[in-house]
Write a structure and sequence with these properties.
Layout (H helix, E strand, L loop, with lengths): L1 H16 L1 E9 L6 H6 L3 H6 L2 E9 L6 H7 L3 E4 L6 H15 L3 E4 L11 H9 L5 E11 L6 H18 L11 E4 H6 L9 H11 L4 E8 L10 H17 L6
Parallel strand pairs: 1-2, 1-4, 2-3, 5-7
Antiparallel strand pairs: 4-6, 5-6
């Protein structure tokens, strides 16, 4: 009897120590990569680290069966409202996350470029107690041949250098789509980005809010499916967002 009681108390303490994690996948027509990415999420390792996770997909008007695949995989699906754009979808997903009460959020694109097996590396860095936000740096990690074109590679470096020069807060890969946040960091961010400039605005908001940003090198693979990021046009939008938010603590239209 005493041994049963001891066992039950031990299980209860273990359950109390578990934390809740949202893994957010922003998608538009990612039917080729979604199931592959979900299959690679290291569920057992996350459990051992003390994380219960739920999978959330915010869908930006997919027409290729992405939503069906997500639901078949047991994911929570939020339909993006108000128009196209990754920034629009992420801002809506962040609001849902705040309502969830989960302690942390990891976001990555479900196109096969980011490796979900790197999620524990970001969470361990965050758990070290020195930071509020962790990014997965492609430019410091391992990159498959052809995963990033020369123009995009140069553009990423230029935008990152500009961000560090403007905000005086080191980061080696501004435009990465692989981030981990403590709850407080998401709550403090005020954003109005519509498209691919969202990562730049998240960085700017974290700097304004004096959030501690750290990074870990990650693996970056070739994309599954059709790329959506346009080199020049989106680069201009990102630079403009960096400049505007440097002088305005809060979003302006």
């Amino acid at each position: 009897m005493n041994s049963d009681r001891w066992l039950n108390e031990g299980v209860g303490k273990l359950e109390k120590q578990m934390r809740n994690l949202t893994i957010l996948l922003p998608a538009r027509n990612e039917v080729q990569g979604l199931a592959v990415v979900v299959e690679m999420i290291p569920t057992t390792e996350l459990k051992k680290m003390g994380w219960n996770h739920r999978l959330v997909l915010v869908d930006g008007y997919s027409t290729d069966g992405t939503v069906k695949v997500a639901r078949d995989l047991g994911m929570t699906v939020y339909d993006q409202r108000g128009g196209l754009g990754k920034g629009m979808g992420l801002r809506q997903a962040f609001k849902h996350y705040i309502e969830s009460g989960d302690e942390a959020l990891v976001m990555l694109d479900p196109d096969g470029t980011y490796d979900p097996r790197d999620i524990p590396h970001l969470l361990r860095r965050m758990d070290a107690g020195e930071c509020d936000v962790v990014i997965g740096s492609r430019l410091r990690g391992e990159m498959d041949d052809g995963a990033m074109g020369r123009v995009n590679y140069l553009g990423n470096h230029i935008l990152t250098w500009a961000a560090v020069a403007l905000y005086r807060n080191f980061i080696s890969d501004l435009c990465t789509g692989f981030w981990a946040f403590k709850r407080e960091a998401i709550q403090a961010m005020q954003l109005n980005s519509i498209s691919f400039e969202i990562e730049a605005e998240m960085y700017a908001a974290c700097c304004h809010n004096k959030m501690r940003i750290r990074e870990v090198p990650i693996r970056y693979h070739n994309r599954l499916g059709t790329a959506k990021l346009g080199s020049i046009h989106d680069g201009v939008r990102i630079m403009r967002k960096l400049l505007v938010r440097r002088f305005f603590r809060y979003p302006v239209n």
